[in-house]
Amino acid sequence: MTSAPDLSPNGLRVADLVRSGEQQTAAIERAPGIYESRGVGNSYLLTSPDGSVLVNAGTLADARRGHELFQRISSTPVRYIILTQSHANQYGGLEVYKTPDNTVVAHRLYPQDRRYFQSLAAHYQRGSRRNVVGSRSAFTIACA
Q1: Would you list the domain boundaries of the chain?
Q2: Degrees, nearest 5: CA angle 31-87-15
Q3: Cα torsion 37, 50, 84, 31: sign
Q4: Side-chain-side CA neighbours of residue 19 (13 Å)
Q5: E strand or H helix at 60, and its extent?
Q6: Strands, DSSP E only, in 15-138?
């Protein structure tokens, strides 16, 4: 990977796409008021004067970097966090963004899916060279 990665999705292999966030120094504006932070799980910040909406928190490492990038874009509080999937690369960094003043929104089956994937964790860890640990923080999630 070069020191100046191509941050467009065109022509990137999956491994390059996942690692493209490592070199990211600024959030990518995808449309007016919509910004992307890249990583294993990309996150998007939708900004407005009344507060922002975060779509996916990313992994814990992604969230730490993304939170810093997004703070440079907007100082308004994150009012809602939308989780599009019950995969760790979407919720792993939730603790970085979650406050008592925002609401996490997910599909009504999110808790069931999350329990299912957690039940498979031991199986997936056996085949992985890395120890995968999910977020252990407890949050109230508004499921729609």
Answers
A1: 26-124+133-143
A2: 65
A3: negative
A4: 10
A5: helix 60-73
A6: 28-31, 34-37, 43-46, 52-55, 78-82, 103-106
| Token representation of residue 104 | 């996490």
Domain 26-124+133-143 bears CATH identifier 3.40.1180.10: no
CA angle centred on 19, ends 16 and 21, rounded to 5°: 120
Torsion angle of the four alpha carbons 8, 13, 15, 17, in this order, in degrees rounded to the nearest 10: 10
Q: Is 106 exposed, middle or buried (0-12, 13-18, 19+ CB in 10 A)?
A: buried
Task: Give 130's contacts (C-beta < 8 A, 6+ positions apart).
Answer: none
Q: What is the reported pTM?
A: 0.73
The sheet with strand 103-106 has its strands ordered as 28-31, 34-37, 43-46, 52-55, 78-82, 103-106, 141-143
The CA distance from 68 to 119, in Å, is: 33
Q: Are strands 103-106 and 78-82 parallel, antiparallel or unpaired?
A: parallel
- pLDDT category at 94 given cuts 50, 70, 90 is very high
Query: Does pLDDT of 24 surpass 80?
Result: yes
